[in-house]
Every structure is written in structure tokens, then in C-alpha cells.
Design brief:
Layout: E1 2-3, E2 9-10, H1 12-19, E3 24-29, H2 37-46, E4 51-56, H3 62-65, H4 67-82
Parallel strand pairs: 3-4
Antiparallel strand pairs: 1-2
């Protein structure tokens, strides 16, 4: 469940349905102690079109732990997927 600023909980499944054909990049922390890789597998299965998963050797916050790697993956994804 994703908690929003108005304290309403939205389920990730519902949010993914709203994406329609928007490209999705998952930069997943391989050592995330709270949300394991099965959650990423589920997201990829529910939203296979236009999506890519990148495993980052980090924990729950790969963008904080390995920002250079995450930025590199975002740039690569943007160049290959969005900026074509």
C-alpha cells in the first residue's frame, strides 16, 4: 500500500493500472530488507509492457545508496525508451 499526503492508502496494483502505456523503470535494491525481489517480480508480471527492471547492489533506497548507478540507469532508460 502506498500512503499519500491525504492519508489515503492506494494499492500499487491500482496505481500500475493507471499507467496505461507509460514506460516504467524499476531500480530495485537487491538487499532490500523490507520489500524483497518477489514484489518486483509481481510488478513486472502485472505491467510487462514498456517496463524494465534493474537490480542495484543496494538496500531499500538505491537512489540514496548508489545515486551514480541509479542515475546512469535512468539516463540509459530515457535514451532507449523515451527519447527515441
Amino acid at each position: 500500500k502506498v500512503i499519500t499526503k491525504n492519508n489515503k492508502g492506494l494499492y500499487v496494483d491500482d496505481l500500475l493500472q493507471r499507467l496505461d502505456n507509460v514506460p516504467l523503470l524499476l531500480c530495485w535494491g537487491e538487499a532490500d530488507p523490507w520489500i524483497g525481489p518477489k514484489a518486483a517480480d509481481k510488478i513486472m508480471a502485472q505491467y510487462p509492457q514498456h517496463s524494465r527492471r534493474v537490480n542495484i547492489p543496494a538496500g531499500h533506497c538505491p537512489h540514496d545508496e548508489m545515486p551514480d548507478k541509479v542515475n546512469q540507469e535512468i539516463q540509459k532508460f530515457m535514451e532507449e525508451t523515451v527519447l527515441i
